[in-house]
Amino acid sequence: MSDIPAPRRVGNAEIIHHEGYDDGIVSPFVPAIRTVSGARLVFISGVTGAPVYHDHPHRPEVFDAMPMDAEGQARNAFAHLDLALRAAGCERYDVVNMIRFFTDIVADQDVVNALQGEWFGGHIPTSTTLEISRLATDPRLRFEFHVVAAASAG
Questions:
Q1: 127 φ, ψ to 5°?
Q2: Does the residue 5 lie in any domain?
Q3: pLDDT in tens, 51-103
């Protein structure tokens, strides 16, 4: 076990570790992130592999062209997340919290974890992962990500 590192600034936030920290453990989350003074929080609606803009009530044919596999849906979801972050004036490293809802954790979590690690490029937000029975948008969706980012004050 290594010493607890001092908070490390990443974008508009500081990464916080506590007692028990071990830099040899590979993990898709950190225990805490503190936003820096003046940062504005950005709340991003759940992103999935489906088109972001779609009709309500939902029409199943709108979702027919989305990938049905975990990798394809994750790539779409991260592309959608990029669009929302950029529109809000944020970068990937500004993500401070990610809540992940899976319909089948065993089948999809490892695939998503690998792509998430690539997408973040070394940045690790706080995170919670849940398994649910289904998502509201379309029953073929496998997961949804809810994200909070810390934007610059300017």
A1: -155, 150
A2: no
A3: 998 888 888 998 999 999 999 999 999 999 999 999 999 999 999 999 999 99
Q: Which residue from 32, 153, 13, 39 is spatially nearest to 95, judged by alpha carbons?
A: 13
| Structural domain includes residue 81 | yes
Cα separations in angstroms, 120 against 52, 55, 80, 125: 21, 30, 14, 9
| CA of residue 33 relative to chain centroid, distance | 14
Measured distance between the N- and C-terminal CA atoms of the chain, rounded to whole angstroms: 39
Centroid of chain to Cα 128? 10
CA 47 – CA 50 distance, rounded (Å): 8
11 within domain boundaries: no
Residue labelled with tokens 């596999």 = 69
- One-letter amino acid at 85 equals L
- In angstroms, the CA 51 to CA 54 distance is 6
Is residue 104 in some structural domain? yes
The DSSP string of 29-48 is --SEEEEPTT-EEEEEEEE-
Q: Is the entire prediction scored with pTM above 0.70?
A: yes
